[in-house]
Write a structure and sequence with these properties.
Elements (H helix, E strand, L loop, with lengths): L1 E3 L2 E2 L8 E2 L5 E3 L13 E10 L3 E2 L8 E10 L6 E10 L2 E6 L7 H4 L1 E2 L5 E7 L17 E9 L5 E9 L7 E10 L1
Antiparallel strand pairs: 1-4, 2-3, 5-7, 5-14, 6-14, 7-8, 8-9, 8-10, 11-12, 12-13, 13-14
Length: about 180
């Protein structure tokens, strides 16, 4: 979901932070998977998600696309491949794991607990525009996710895109994917 309007206090760090027109707090809630698959490669398609927002509210909410692959194997750490695109009024921000969807077993994000994963990716060079332009090296993308429901039927993913030199400004959102 996406909390908008009024104000919010997150971790009591900044009580009553106002959420003006285009500012939001994104959240993901679900029952974590208890029994994970032990073998197989599964594709996940976007089931639903929030419209991405800019942390300072200077841009209207955008659109989000995401596909994923999870590679489960005995005696190996589960790997997740992602390919995503965030579109805002100032341009597109595409990001993916190094192996993409085709090689998640070698270049994907690794599970870091029983049912969750996280990692740092980069946007493709020259993403975005205006004062949020990602230049040649791309913007940093922090990704956190996990599996939900029986046998990892759903995957939840949260992301935050930060441009170098943009003083803590981010574009963020969440998405829920469903096993195909």
């Amino acid at each position: 979901g996406r909390w908008t309007g009024n104000s919010v206090a997150v971790n009591s760090a900044d009580p009553n932070t106002p959420l003006a027109a285009n500012r939001s707090v994104h959240y993901l809630v679900g029952a974590p998977t208890v029994t994970m698959p032990t073998s197989g490669t599964f594709s996940y398609g976007l089931f639903g998600g929030t419209s991405p927002t800019d942390s300072d509210g200077s841009m209207a909410p955008g659109t989000f696309r995401l596909n994923a692959v999870a590679h489960f194997a005995p005696a190996m750490q589960t790997r997740i491949g992602l390919e995503a695109q965030v579109t805002m009024e100032n341009g597109q921000y595409k990001f993916s794991t190094p192996g993409g969807l085709g090689n998640s077993s070698r270049g994907g994000l690794a599970m870091d607990s029983l049912n969750s994963f996280s990692g740092v990716l980069q946007t493709q060079p020259n993403a975005g525009g205006g004062d949020f332009k990602c230049k040649g090296g791309g913007c940093r993308v922090d990704v956190q996710g996990g599996f939900f429901g029986p046998d990892a039927a759903r995957m939840g993913v949260g992301y935050s895109i930060a441009a170098p030199g943009s003083a803590g400004r981010t574009i963020s959102g969440v998405g829920v994917l469903e096993k195909k």
